[in-house]
Specification:
The protein is an alpha/beta fold. It contains 20 helices and 12 strands. The two termini are about 70 Å apart.
Length: about 600
């Protein structure tokens, strides 16, 4: 709730005007039964047609004024609710961007998507309804009871007895359903997670003939959610019949008492009709209030879930030292202290007994890894699947922090660097070549938004992508589908490499990002990178020994530990793991 109020502060005027106009509408609505009573007791009883017409015109005027007030209230409440949801969505997205990969892995992508979409939409609907109905419905209920007392005190006692009973029903159901709605949203998270897994891994599922298993898994989760929603729906469904029952019993008693008092001359027929109308107003408003309570319950449950994400803080603390000159800094920052040292003396990258354990993981992904990489060197990282290759290079860009030991860049602990300035100088090309919807130029400019066409074409030359780009209609303005689906695997990889190169990074990491390239293109790519001026410190992660043979240094990983470090010839002579990888591949090539 505190967070919602925080976002609504910018809409104080709307938060006041929306309920105010709703109260005005309710006030005019409360006068309607009195006008109807006058029509019956004065106009119809006295056969005064002029009075009846005058009162009917008054009813129309009340209706028009009420409609104008209602539309105005709806405008202000919608403006406040949408504005609140927009700010919350912006801040939540920014907060998610500030989280490290460890928190992202722990929370889960499907959960974050649900928080960003359906949960915030539910909060938006809740805010809208609260501003429009939260004061109006109680005002009508209490106002109708007060108006009933102005007509007849004895008959109004029926209202006094019915309203507390109705309040117990409404708020009792609200309190009992609130925790259940939280479980419903958690079940929705689970469904979303399973759906996302199946859509992402549909090829693997079909390749291993696991369609039926996945259908069963989805059906089980869906049935669980279905049963829970039915259970909550049954409890919430009691709201309307119970309120109808109480109100209708009150109406029966009211008409019975009214009939007796009309016979004794204490009440007029018009007054009995007015009392009935007030009771009907209470019934309608309580039904609205009941639905409002259900929506508020859902909104509060969703708000608490959103708060849960906001309460997660990144375990990765930002440093204060700038890595070289940050692209977004003009050089006025006095803390720009980490200029590149003498390459002959200080390693570009150094791992000192580094270990890494993922959040919630059992065994260490990396253990006691130590090596150095000098400026301009090409370092190969090789090993079997799951050996920790990607984990190692992800720590250089500080996607994860070491759980043991130290990672140093330019002789300084990586934790001391400002993360943004560090990542401006470290370019990573991930295993999965991911391109965004737009033109080729727009995708390349993700690496450097200020890159000129000449710089882009130079990056395309280095990544061996220029040839196929120039053959496309529009060249740099050629359209790329989301994910690069209209490009081949090799083309996607070369464009993502060009996107990294255009940044002119000090450290370039190719995480198995040339797997779709043929050997000739792969060799030309590596040669072009080495000829860059100045050449970056290059890390090449690959399972192909041929891609790493000419590296200055090769790190061989086996089950998270370093099995050997050296040149190709040194490892081929003395590292069993490297020998096994190399000879298995070249035997296949020989065949």
């Amino acid at each position: 709730m505190k967070r919602i109020w925080m976002y609504l502060r910018r809409y104080k005027r709307e938060c006041v005007l929306a309920p105010l106009f709703k109260m005005l509408e309710a006030t005019f609505e409360l006068f309607v039964p009195l006008v109807v009573s006058s029509i019956i007791d004065v106009g119809i009883a006295g056969e005064d047609k002029g009075y009846i017409v005058k009162m009917c015109l008054l009813l129309i005027a009340l209706a028009v004024i009420g409609l104008v007030c209602s539309i105005t209230a709806q405008y202000f409440s919608a403006k406040a609710a949408v504005g609140c949801a927009t700010q919350m969505r912006h801040h939540l997205f920014s907060h998610i961007q500030s989280l490290s990969f460890s928190e992202m892995d722990t929370i889960g992508t499907s959960t974050l998507i649900t928080r960003m979409t359906s949960d915030i939409n539910q909060v938006q609907n809740g805010v809208n309804l609260v501003l429009r109905l939260f004061l109006r419905s109680p005002f009508i209920v209490l106002g109708a009871m007060i108006m009933a007392f102005t007509i007849d005190v004895r008959s109004a006692l029926v209202f006094v007895a019915a309203i507390p009973v109705l309040a117990v029903i409404v708020f009792g159901i609200m309190l009992s359903t609130r925790p259940l709605y939280k479980k419903v949203q958690s079940g929705l998270d689970k469904i979303l997670g399973i759906t996302r897994e199946n859509l992402t891994g549909v090829r693997v599922i079909r390749a291993f003939n696991k369609e039926e298993d996945e259908v069963k898994r989805f059906k089980a989760a869906n049935e669980e959610l279905n049963h829970l929603q039915k259970f909550v729906g049954k409890i919430s469904g009691l709201m309307n019949p119970l309120t109808y029952l109480v109100v209708n019993i009150a109406i029966i008693i009211l008409i019975w008492i009214g009939a007796l008092r009309v016979n004794t001359g204490d009440l007029t027929q018009g007054q009995v009709v007015a009392l009935y109308n007030y009771m009907s107003q209470i019934l309608v408003e309580l039904i609205k209030l009941a639905n409002l309570v259900i929506n508020i319950t859902k909104a509060l449950a969703c708000a608490n879930r959103i708060d849960g994400v906001f309460e997660v803080n990144s375990s990765m603390q930002d440093g204060s030292v700038m890595f070289g000159e940050d692209d977004g800094d003009t050089g006025n920052n006095s803390e720009i202290a980490a200029q590149t040292p003498n390459a002959e003396n200080v390693p570009a990258v150094e791992f000192r007994n580094v270990s890494l354990r993922y959040a919630g993981g059992g065994e260490e992904a990396l253990s006691n890894v130590s090596f150095t990489a000098m400026h301009g060197e090409t370092v190969g990282v090789i090993g079997g699947t799951g050996s920790g290759k990607s984990s190692l290079v992800n720590m250089i860009a500080r996607f994860y922090d070491a759980t043991g030991g130290e990672v140093l860049i330019n002789g300084r602990n990586i934790r001391e660097y400002n993360i943004e300035s560090l990542r401006n100088r470290v370019a990573v090309v991930l295993q999965k070549a991911l391109l965004f919807k737009g033109t080729i130029r727009e995708n390349i400019k993700w690496g450097d938004k200020n890159a000129t066409d000449e710089e882009i074409m130079n990056a395309l030359d280095i990544s061996q992508a220029r040839e196929f780009v120039e053959k496309k209609d529009g060249k740099l303005d050629a359209f790329v589908d989301q994910g690069g689906k209209n490009l081949s695997g090799g083309q996607r990889q070369r464009l993502t490499i060009a996107r990294a190169i255009v940044r002119k990074p000090d450290i370039l990491i190719l995480d198995d990002s040339a797997s779709a390239l043929d050997f000739a293109t792969d060799a030309a790519l590596r040669k072009s990178i080495r000829e860059m001026s100045p050449p970056p410190t290059l890390f090449i992660v690959s399972q192909r020994a041929a891609s790493l043979m000419h590296a200055d240094k090769i790190i061989v990983l086996d089950d998270g530990a370093v099995a050997g470090i050296g040149t190709h010839n040194e490892l081929l002579a003395g590292c069993e793991v490297y020998q096994e990888i190399y000879y298995s591949q070249f035997k296949k090539e020989a065949i």
